[in-house]
Amino acid sequence: MNALQQRRCAHAEAITEVRPESLDTCPECVALGDTWIHLRVCMTCGHVGCCDSFENRHITKHFHASQHPIIRSLEPGETWAYCYVDRWMVGGRQMTVEVSNFRS
């Protein structure tokens, strides 16, 4: 993490590897019989939810319920992360999402 990111987001330093509860579905959308657009993962607990481009906004609802500050994209080729508390894009490459040998 560079110096500017450290000034803007103190939460990123506490993030370690997480194991997503799903890699290809939003479990809450599935339970509703609904669809989703893009998936995000909570970098505190591994909860997976749909993005804010869809009406359900499950990952944002997870933040409001849990106060877990950082999410990361689960989309192929995307490594960005976002801190809800600081409203700051966080360098995502150092935040590891364990995907090997895992299927939802």
TrEMBL record:
Q: Cite the UBP-type domain residue spans from the record.
A: 7-104
Under the heading PROSITE patterns, the entry gives: ZF_UBP (PS50271)
* Record organism: Deinococcus rubellus
Q: What is this protein called?
A: UBP-type zinc finger domain-containing protein
Query: Which SUPFAM superfamilies does the protein's record reference?
Result: RING/U-box
InterPro entries of this UniProt entry? Znf_RING/FYVE/PHD, Znf_UBP
TM stretches of this protein: none
